[in-house]
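I am writing to request your help with a piece of structural work I have in hand. Thank you for your consideration; the sequence and its tokens are set out here:
=====
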Amino acid sequence: MKISCNGSVWAQSWTDRPYWIDGETALPDMAERPDTQADVVIIGAGYTGLNAAIETAQAGRKTIVIDAQDAGYGCSTRNGGQISTSIKPSLAKLSARFGPERGRAIRREGETALQWIEDRIGSLGIDCDFDRPGRFHAAHTPQAYDQIAREAEQLGREEGIEARAIPAAEQHAYLGSDAYFGGVLFPNHASIHPGKYHRGLLRAALAAGASLVPHCAATGITRVADGFEVQTEKGKIHARDVIVATNGYTGAASPWLQRRVIPIGSYVIATEPLPAELMDRLFPQNRIASDTCKVVYYYRPSPDRTRVLFGGRVSASETDPAVSGPKLYRDMCRIFPELSAYRLTHSWVGMVAYTFDELAHTGTHDGVHYAMGYCGSGVSMASYLGMRMGQKVLGLAEGETAFDNLPFPTRPLYAGKPWFLPPMVAWYRWRDRMEYGRAQRALGQS
């Protein structure tokens, strides 16, 4: 039965659990309590923390990973499974801030991370539906298309990054929607099953000898004469080195870091199973997709091509998936009107971490190692910087990156609660609607 975006959007048994953990086997056995001594304590059992743990544990360091929730509760199993080159600022902007050599090195790290994660998955033997279908970055207005087409040409000329402008007349070969005005194809961008990837990392860390303790929140970190004392809900751990890998879930145990990352809810929905012929029409080349709206949308077919997974930032203050789901559904139906005939089986939210300079950051503060602030593009970068951070703890020169110890800005009066986001998101959403509506009206008159 066809339903409108104003009617019931929910399948009878919809859930707020991420689609990515459906059908997964139970988590491996993990420790109930942490030991009181460790060489390395890692706070956060997501992509960053687990990749760091694999490095330190394989090198023989006694490694304990703790997490406030189940391992992987955060965005490591709640993201859209899209992998880009992860660096938001342009080469020109980075060069102006840090000089051309450092700027180019930072940009190269995004390309390195994209290639590295494919190699990592292969070396660890993780079955996680890794693929390189390419990403179609769609323009929501003709002006946006002109801009991203120029940028695509510049990327190829200045950085050797493959990107091809696709005019509106050809976009149906890449994306079955009339909502856009062309786009840019990034043929090397990749996709993954986030849940399977996380589960594979978890098994690899355990196999390397790391100990993982879920439901063991860190409540404080104190520097002592011969290392650190990490206070947790399940007792104290003395460690030589501490790694904070909490990203969008960074809390009061790390107040200096908490003041430097902006937690933002990223919301995702999954449709009920779709006919194969409809999926072939909407995603004829299996591309992942995003668009040029300021309040960005990202979407893709599920790895088995049975569902559409559609994500975006619908709100800065509402984290109830029962509220965010219908909002995303309306946006999805605008882009793909055919999907108004199908209901939602999943609606969930995860917290990403933005930074004030739109860059990831890794380094040390008061002797504590950290990597975070992936700005919504963290699948490869979180994994890559986690690995490099593990190498740093081991004292290996190859652990160095172009991100190391960049200035990590904050703002006056900011303590980790982004009070400024609701008006900003509301403004950007209004602007997106106005620009898109104006472009559609002009198209209808032409």
